[in-house]
């Protein structure tokens, strides 16, 4: 078992004793406690800690101010927050930390329980393994020629995460997600190479590669008797390219495919230089028959005006609103509002990131149309999705 150094910031004497006892019972921790944020920052400047656990309601320097100071450290520890205040306050403070680039290991409502401390240890185990994996990767940015070769050789592949209907449990679509089957490093997830693709200005090459692979996969599934629509991520800033829509349509037509079977998900990670390019590209995609999805709705800068002024066909609900909705009435209420809005606008609502039966139950209750997530299936190669389609069979199979 790994042993982690933890610094706890708490101003109540009873909590000092209580937290020491709980961490000792959980095992795997060396714990130090301080009374305020200023002292915590002094300790962090002199020593390395794996985790900082801080109360939000603190005198002089509150927990949010401590988060802001923590983000300025060269090597900040992972962060966990605890409070007796509302869950919304806890979630909001967690977003402050995440947006500042901190690794948030846990958000805990007081009283702190041993099971939650064990979850913190498991999260620290995960972060440690991620750091080891990252350290084994080649340093620096891969050469553009290396990325081009990976695209040309078919190492960067489209894998497919199925979407299931929450009405009858059948697979009704899929999302194409990029995976790099690297000959030396093994399977790489998008976070390991998408930034390099963007920096090398190869995003259009990646997009057309994923589209081409998807059209081939759809043809394979069609021969099995399954006409399966697929959604593909499209970085929004690519709509600045005036010929992008024509290029995508030409690729579909060359493959004798139907653009109505492809939905492009506009991501929030970027935007166009001119708002007119955004609306022109979105409208032209729809005019050519492609579906259009607002990705990650409920996260970041997605707005109601953007939703009603763009000809979307699909509304993707961000996983941050799905995670834990089975135990959080606030999240469940937000999901109800979004799905009702989607129905009124004539949009198919798709929930991302479902992981538990409790979350599925909420999504059914609010009448979300479709769901994707690990409880259904991770992204898989196209032949594996073909096997899932065979298992799905001709009759509805309830989740």
TrEMBL record:
The keyword Nucleotide-binding does not apply. One of its GO terms (biological process) is phosphorelay signal transduction system. It comes from Pseudomonas parafulva. The keyword Ribosomal protein does not apply. Residues 140-393 form the EAL domain. The modification 4-aspartylphosphate is found at residue 55. One of its GO terms (molecular function) is cyclic-guanylate-specific phosphodiesterase activity. This is EAL domain-containing protein. InterPro entries: CheY-like_superfamily, Cyclic-di-GMP_PDE-like, EAL_dom, EAL_sf, Sig_transdc_resp-reg_receiver. Residues 5-125 form the Response regulatory domain. It comes from the Bacteria. Keywords: Phosphoprotein. CDD domains: EAL, REC. PROSITE patterns: EAL, RESPONSE_REGULATORY.
